[in-house]
Write a sequence for this structure.
């Protein structure tokens, strides 16, 4: 991040794009795609919502590497157990949803299982497990959870059209006024608080490791997180749930808030997320060896290398290209996954969940790519943590976030940020 | 001849003095300039006068981190001093092998605090971590060490107390051992109560040392960063974020350098006040 | 106060036992965690071979998968701490000798001593930002040199004051005899005072080494990868996969062990070191 030309390649999280663009630090990767000397990789194989993170203003900028997004993990063996299904029906009067499709359903399931000894170890077990520690990436949980409450489809033929009020998540693109304290977010935060009580209160102080482990060692019936959980669940020295894993795309909501009409719409809403960093490389403008840099990044991006990283999950790269998805949509076979140690059904659930979320979900959440993003996320993270641990109310947490985001925007220059934000999400003023 | 010697003697201190000017005084002056400027992403954009300082006094997070720093200092300093004094009184007798135990007790002083924080994450683990299991064993409930603001504050203090009690201990022990036996023997003739001896003989004699210990501890507590960083990340929320931690995030993660420098100057002023008070009272120790 | 008394004796030993347990139990926990399988970590078990079967797997995986990163971290720590403590003690013994043997006119000796001491009160947060900007413009970010300079600055006041005390306690007569024989100050310092102070010198180096080894804030700010010492390496691994207790414990032991063991060798000088000479232990 020095812009001094010492590095040829910047491998950064996707939220650095705002800085790359506003400081004019990089050369679009596209310039090298047709160069015959480069190893061939197919940008079009990256799944649609992820493309947004690799492009800017319709131009390909980055080279394929990581694809982050959170999905829902659950215990297939427990949720499909007739005994528990019957018990659930008795207690709630409803059928146990397998898998839960909305956060409301997730909450009911987690609440039902929390405090019951469903794994038979003689102790009360948990419903859900999350990483909610401040600086423990808890805000990514909330980002994924809040998307369906906030992102609304555009009226007209194309529901995915970005308008001032639809398919926006972060700011009003006309004023840069944060949306973070609008009713959709408040509702979502209340849901997060409800969910946070269907697991151990210890998780308010957990980061990734502790939260994942609670699921992996069979103490929690549900979690939602990145692809790491899918691959870690197959390592038997750490996980007891190999062969018992259920995976579903990130849940939607039973309703969403329309920012235009300022009304709740009582309709199920599903929004794909790309939360996380999706680390990948771009080429520095100051590099004197741009060709070499492009060669290296292209090689890393080739199906052979990238798909290998996905299948051998411990590198932390999630499935996000056609090479990773199973036939017929994708090009991979279940045998490839089994060969690396996956249980066949687990792998199918895992890869198909990502396929459904990134291929079939009608809407997607935009990614924040403006200067100041890390600082904004940090203050958000802090206020979410305060809300979860009961130090302030959900409304206050979100109001304070909005207030501080406004201060940051004013400090960095509202007009400049607005321009970058509009470009980043593909909004064209009418 | 004599004159010449003194001149040469000057040369002995010159390198160290020059070093301090280069690497302490100059950076501090530079920092003062930064604190009076508008800075964006490491570029100084212009003079803004006291704007950063004004912003500081209106920033509730500045006050909350400052308040935590004070609470932390208060709990940690008083506890380490009392525990250290207690241990020193116990160890201040002729017991075989005492040197060995004394050495063991100094080990925490030399462990990297950042490592201790991560060790703390394991020790304070709420679901069957060693501390909670021990507490359960003696009949207490599950303590939310890292998920509740007040308990997290306490957890930070406990780690710090664990690390620094030996500091108070060995220094006070050295102080106690420097009191000669004759004084005690004379005292025991006059009074038979151990408390009276402690109150009227021991305490006055070691009070400068006690003062030194407390001052040094306060100053160190004001610098705390490593343990909150690694144990709680300053959370939940900002409940365990120290001022140094806030300066670090604001200045070196968000690159709001001017503002961070202003807060750093505030912290500097606080420790310097403590330092001046300290020098006033305990000058003679360093003669 | 010093009467022999059975009951008191027992109480004293109980206090000692509690103290030792209190100090050693966290170390013990780190050690056994590093020898546990992940599944055993979350089960309550504290006695190896009885409650769990110890394994070297964590240490092995750690060195196989993160070997280069860890060895680089340890090497950086060693290089930085050794250089910084040597520089600091070199500068410190000059200055200490000057302060012990000379009377300064313009600045009194006492004031000079205080001036050095006052840096003990300086919060690192006050210099971390200018240092960052300075190192950035000197293109020294992520170099060992940057951290050597920083740590030298931090530990030098210690060295000055401790060495001043040490030299002052040496008998001046030997040096005076040498001066009469025509030795220069410089010669008497090198040939007489320094060898006599050697044990203290070594102790000072060790104490400075430990402080430099444990430094974290500046290391975090001034290094990213190539020059990161072990303290930063243990902090950096949290972010990709969270705190994995079994691996973290191996890493933090690597950071903890060298300075704590070294410190056991300098017990004689420790009180002086910690109070910068205010209290002679």
């Amino acid at each position: 991040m020095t812009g001094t030309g010492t590095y040829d390649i910047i491998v950064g999280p996707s939220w650095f794009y705002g800085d790359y663009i506003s400081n004019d630090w990089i050369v679009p990767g596209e310039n090298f795609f047709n160069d015959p000397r480069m190893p061939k990789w197919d940008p079009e194989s990256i799944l649609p919502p992820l493309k947004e993170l690799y492009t800017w203003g319709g131009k390909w900028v980055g080279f394929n590497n990581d694809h982050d997004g959170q999905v829902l993990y659950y215990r297939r063996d427990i949720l499909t157990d007739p005994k528990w299904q019957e018990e659930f029906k008795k207690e709630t009067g409803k059928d146990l949803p397998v898998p839960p499709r909305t956060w409301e359903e997730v909450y009911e399931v987690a609440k039902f299982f929390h405090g019951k000894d469903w794994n038979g170890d003689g102790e009360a077990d948990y419903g859900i497990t999350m990483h909610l520690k401040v600086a423990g990436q808890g805000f990514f949980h909330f980002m994924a959870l809040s998307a369906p409450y906030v992102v609304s489809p555009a009226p007209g033929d194309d529901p995915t059209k970005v308008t001032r009020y639809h398919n926006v998540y972060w700011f009003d693109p006309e004023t840069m006024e944060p949306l973070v304290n609008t009713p959709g977010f408040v509702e979502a935060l209340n849901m997060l608080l409800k969910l946070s009580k269907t697991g151990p209160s210890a998780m308010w102080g957990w980061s990734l490791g502790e939260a994942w482990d609670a699921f992996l060692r069979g103490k929690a019936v549900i979690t939602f997180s990145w692809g790491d959980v899918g691959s870690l669940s197959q390592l038997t020295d750490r996980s007891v749930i190999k062969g018992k894993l259920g995976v579903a795309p990130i849940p939607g909501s039973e309703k969403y808030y329309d920012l235009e009409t300022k009304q709740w719409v009582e309709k199920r809403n599903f929004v794909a997320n790309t939360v996380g960093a999706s680390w990948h490389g771009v080429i520095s403008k100051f590099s004197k060896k741009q060709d070499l840099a492009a060669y290296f990044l292209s090689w890393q991006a080739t199906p052979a290398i990238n798909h290998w990283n996905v299948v051998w999950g411990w590198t932390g790269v999630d499935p996000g290209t056609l090479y990773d998805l199973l036939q017929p949509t994708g090009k991979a076979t279940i045998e490839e996954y089994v060969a690396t140690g996956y249980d066949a059904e687990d792998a199918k659930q895992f890869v198909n969940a990502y396929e459904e979320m990134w291929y079939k979900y009608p809407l997607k959440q935009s990614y924040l790519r403006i200067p100041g993003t890390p600082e904004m996320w940090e203050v958000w993270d802090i206020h979410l943590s305060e809300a979860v641990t009961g130090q302030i109310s959900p409304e206050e947490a979100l109001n304070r976030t909005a207030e501080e985001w406004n201060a940051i925007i004013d400090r960095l220059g509202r007009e400049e940020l607005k321009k970058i934000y509009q470009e980043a999400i593909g909004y064209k003023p009418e | 001849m004599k004159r010449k010697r003194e001149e040469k003697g000057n040369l002995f201190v010159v390198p160290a003095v020059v070093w301090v000017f280069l690497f302490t005084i100059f950076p501090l002056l530079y920092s003062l300039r930064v604190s009076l400027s508008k800075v964006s992403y490491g570029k100084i954009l212009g003079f803004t006068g006291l704007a950063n300082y004004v912003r500081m006094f209106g920033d509730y997070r500045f006050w909350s981190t400052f308040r935590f720093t004070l609470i932390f200092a208060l709990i940690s300093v008083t506890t380490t001093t009392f525990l250290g004094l207690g241990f020193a009184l116990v160890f201040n007798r002729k017991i075989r092998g005492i040197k060995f135990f004394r050495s063991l007790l100094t080990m925490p002083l030399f462990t990297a605090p950042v490592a201790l924080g991560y060790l703390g994450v394991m020790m304070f683990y709420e679901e069957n971590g060693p501390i909670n299991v021990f507490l359960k064993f003696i009949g207490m409930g599950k303590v939310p060490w890292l998920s509740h603001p007040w308990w997290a504050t306490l957890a930070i203090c406990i780690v710090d107390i664990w690390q620094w009690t030996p500091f108070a201990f060995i220094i006070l022990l050295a102080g106690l051992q420097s009191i000669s036996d004759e004084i005690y023997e004379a005292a025991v003739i006059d009074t038979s109560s151990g408390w009276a001896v402690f109150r009227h003989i021991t305490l006055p004699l070691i009070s400068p040392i006690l003062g030194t210990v407390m001052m040094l501890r306060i100053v160190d507590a004001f610098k705390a960063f490593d343990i909150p960083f690694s144990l709680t990340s300053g959370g939940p929320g900002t409940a365990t974020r120290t001022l140094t931690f806030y300066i670090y995030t604001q200045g070196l993660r968000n690159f709001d350098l001017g503002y961070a420098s202003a807060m750093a100057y505030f912290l500097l002023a606080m420790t310097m006040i403590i330092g001046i008070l300290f020098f006033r009272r305990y000058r003679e120790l360093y003669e | 106060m010093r009467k022999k008394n059975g009951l008191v004796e027992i109480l004293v030993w109980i206090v000692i036992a509690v103290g030792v347990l209190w100090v050693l139990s966290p170390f013990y926990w780190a050690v056994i965690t590093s020898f546990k399988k992940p599944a055993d970590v979350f089960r309550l078990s504290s006695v190896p071979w009885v409650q769990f079967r110890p394994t070297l797997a964590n240490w092995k995986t750690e060195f196989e998968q993160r070997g280069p990163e860890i060895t680089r971290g340890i090497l950086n720590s060693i290089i930085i701490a050794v250089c910084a403590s040597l520089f600091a003690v070199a500068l410190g013994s000059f200055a200490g000798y000057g302060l012990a043997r000379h009377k300064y006119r313009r600045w009194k000796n006492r004031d000079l001593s205080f001036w050095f001491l006052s840096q003990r009160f300086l919060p690192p947060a006050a210099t971390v930002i200018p240092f960052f900007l300075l190192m950035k413009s000197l293109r020294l970010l992520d170099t060992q040199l940057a951290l050597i300079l920083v740590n030298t600055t931090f530990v030098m006041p210690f060295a000055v004051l401790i060495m001043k005390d040490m030299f002052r306690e040496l008998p001046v007569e030997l040096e005076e005899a040498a001066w009469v024989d025509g030795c220069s100050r410089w010669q008497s310092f090198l040939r007489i005072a320094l060898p006599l102070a050697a044990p203290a010198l070594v102790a000072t180096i060790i104490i400075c080494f430990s402080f430099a080894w444990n430094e974290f804030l500046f290391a975090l700010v001034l290094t990213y990868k190539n020059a990161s010492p072990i303290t930063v390496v243990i902090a950096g691994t949290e972010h990709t996969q969270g705190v994995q207790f079994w691996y973290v414990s191996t890493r933090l032991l690597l950071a903890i062990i060298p300075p704590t063991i070294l410190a056991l060798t300098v017990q004689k000088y420790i009180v002086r070191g910690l109070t910068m000479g205010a209290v002679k232990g």
